[in-house]
Amino acid sequence: MSKQIPCEIIQDLMPSYVDGVSSKVSNEAIEEHVRECRECASVLADMQAPEERVVEQEEQKREIDFLKKVKKRNRVIISGVVALAVVGLVFAIRFFIEIYGGEYVLTNIDYHVEVTGNKVQITGTAPEGFVVKERNIYMEDDVVYAGIYCAPETILNKKQTKEIQLESKFDEPFQCVEINGDILWQDGVEIDEYVAGVYQEKHAYIGDASQNDCLASKIGVYDSFGNFTSELQTAQEPYGWKLLLKNPVKGDVEKAQEKMKKYAYVMLAMIDNAGEISWEYKAEGVATAITYTVTTEGAKEELGVDVKSYKESAAKLQELMEKLELVD
């Protein structure tokens, strides 16, 4: 029956059919017609094809958009990883330069200072794992100042020397030689580094607890007796400092007290207003605490001179510590 409808009419209805706005009767007529008419079926197929392509294109677009998002996310991740790697490399290079390329003042070098007239010669050896990186020497106000700086030994500086050889002759005489801030020669006397370290910690007031602790550390109290607490008596003279040892004294107590006395003499010399130094400790296996006190009067009686006179110079402190057999 639909075949009797002319193809021109069927084809005129096809746009409405494709858009879904044609009536049911028209739809049935078109569908029946195209089943029997190849020409109209072909025309209808061509009309329907663009919509299918649009759907296909939209699906392709969605796929492309998804792939773009994945690609973008991957770029962000890769960029982040690269950035972190670059930052890590920068920090690694900076760490290497600061640690292995830096210069250090080492305190465990055994320097030897020899002075002949206006000429000074400084020798020594950098410790294991270090090389000498820079040396300088100059004189100012009758004092010769030397700076000796070391760096950790690496493949980059392995050929640098470990031996310290620094020599200079000046136009005028000098009274003192300092190496990295430590007085190691004064008034014709070579100063032991141990003595120089102690001399750096001299101070005016026994009430300065932090300075007291630094002095005790340089003298060797921690190494000899371990940790301690302090009690300071600054209300009236004689001003005093009591060191309360936390660990019991082992072995020969008399020998330990002899060392306490020597250390106390140095403390009395290096603290201007110190009048007495006391030690409180327990002997091993003894419950009762022992207090041992050293005074400036007792020091003068044994040494024959006022103990305070040894603070005048590093050379005088060297004399005291040699007398006490704390250095050779």
Major β-sheet, in short?
A: 5 strands, mixed
Q: C-alpha Rg, in Å?
A: 47 Å
Give the SSE string.
HHHEEEEEEEEHHHEEHEEHH
Q: Given the C-alpha coordinates, what overall shape results? A: elongated
Sequence stretches where pLDDT stays below 50 over 5 or more residues: none
Using DSSP, what is the number of strands? 12
Overall pLDDT level: 87
Q: In terms of structural class, how would the helical and strand content be classed?
A: alpha+beta
**Helical segment tally?**
9
User: Order of strands across the biggest sheet?
Assistant: 3-4-6-7-8
Residues in helices, as a percent range: 40-55%
Cα separation of the termini: 134 Å
Beta fraction of the residues?
Answer: 15-25%
Question: What do you see in this structure?
Answer:
A five-stranded mixed sheet has the order 3-4-6-7-8. The termini are far apart. The relative contact order is 0.07. It is α+β, with helices and mostly antiparallel strands. The longest helix is centred in the first third of the chain and has 63 residues.
How would you summarize this macromolecular structure in one to three sentences?
By secondary structure, the chain is α+β, with helices and mostly antiparallel strands. The protein has nine helices and twelve strands.
